[in-house]
Specification:
Length: 200
């Protein structure tokens, strides 16, 4: 299916692009990116891409309703892919991304976020290094889902009566009303309250 690499099928890399942390199936790391034009002296979480140097995870991301306004989340996505490939002892792969956006922002932002993550043609090889290892990938597709919903979608039939799903992150709180196993779109909310504000 993808003759430009050895893998016959794309691997699915599920990534939660949080403001505080990036989460994948096997890893969680701070969503900070520090950019350098020259190779930095400390390289424990160094990602190199297009002759730029990025230290990953030294701090958390500042809140921004638009995650596509700079390259940070793209760089964080490459780091997430590298971790998942390393977990599988792989350095080349076709990758299909499954990502999330806040509940009520999905409809408005999903096309832009998908375009942002697929900024390179699927036939074009993306070459980068992370933690001293080189990776060669093709991002072949992106699916965007409502944040938090993945946690319960396989168990919707268990939700009898009125239920509430609440996903509290560093930057947003997503609340979904579920009645007899059916999410109610008109009763979904995204609030710009993260864990710090909730604690206060």
């Amino acid at each position: 299916m993808y003759p430009f690499i050895n893998e016959k099928q794309p691997i699915i890399v599920a990534t939660d692009h949080g403001y505080g942390n990036i989460k994948t199936s096997h890893f969680c790391f701070k969503s900070g990116v520090t950019t350098y034009d020259q190779e930095p002296p400390f390289q424990s979480n160094l990602l190199t891409y297009h002759d730029h140097f990025y230290i990953i995870g030294e701090d958390h991301m500042e809140f921004s309703a638009d995650k596509t306004w700079n390259d940070d989340y793209y760089i964080l996505t490459l780091a997430a892919i590298a971790m998942e490939l390393d977990y599988r002892n792989m350095k080349t792969a076709a990758v299909h991304l499954a990502v999330g956006l806040p509940l009520t922002w999905v409809a408005e932002q999903k096309d832009d976020f998908k375009k942002y993550l697929m900024q390179r043609d699927p036939r074009e090889e993306i070459v980068f290094s992370f933690k001293g290892k080189e990776y060669r990938i093709h991002i072949t597709g992106v699916d965007v889902f409502p944040q938090g919903f993945a946690a319960i979608v396989s168990r919707l039939s268990d939700f009898k009566g009125v239920n509430m799903l609440c996903d509290i992150g560093n930057g947003t709180m997503n609340v979904m009303t579920i009645i007899n196993g059916r999410p109610i779109s008109s009763k979904c909310f995204t609030e710009k309250y993260g864990t710090h504000q909730c604690t206060l």
